[in-house]
Design brief:
Blueprint (H helix, E strand, L loop, with lengths): L2 H13 L5 H13 L10 H43 L5 H14 L4 H28 L10
Helix pairs in contact: 1-2, 3-4
């Protein structure tokens, strides 16, 4: 059995709760110290460099995750503001003021705020157009003359 297979087996035993963490570490060291082919052994500087790179990667990943959570919260805030506006809790002016405040916090980009405003205008125009069509179909007049 190769050392890789032994390590896999050992990891499975630890994951299943058969081995404690200390037992796992001790047995792993035994497997890796055997005279059989082993993973490339690194020098002190190489190990330190590797540890530094892993830490730097973890730090960067943490920053990206935090920024993603901040942006996601901004999107949730916009959806909630839109819901409040649609339910009549917020006026159009209050809604737009709140959007501007969100933009100033940096959690949402100006482009996304502009997109939301344009989307609202489009929704309003489509609803208005749908009402006109419904009125025309019902036989009413909305002062539109056709040639």
């Amino acid at each position: 059995m190769s050392y890789i297979e032994e390590l896999k087996e050992l990891g499975k035993l630890r994951d299943d709760g058969i081995l404690s963490e200390e037992e796992f570490q001790k047995k792993k060291e035994e497997i890796l110290s055997k005279d059989s082919p082993s993973p490339r052994k690194e020098g002190f500087l190489s190990r330190r460099f590797h540890e530094w790179m892993v830490k730097k990667y973890d730090d960067r990943t943490g920053l990206v995750k935090k920024q993603g959570e901040k942006i996601q919260k901004g999107y949730s805030d916009i959806r909630e503001l839109k819901r409040l506006k649609n339910n009549g809790v917020l006026t159009k002016k209050e809604y737009e003021t709140q959007l501007e405040e969100l933009k100033n916090t940096g959690s949402i980009t100006s482009a996304y705020i502009d997109f939301e405003k344009a989307s609202d205008e489009l929704d309003r125009a489509l609803r208005k157009n749908a009402k006109r069509r419904a009125k025309r179909r019902a036989g009413g007049s909305d002062n539109i003359k056709f040639k």
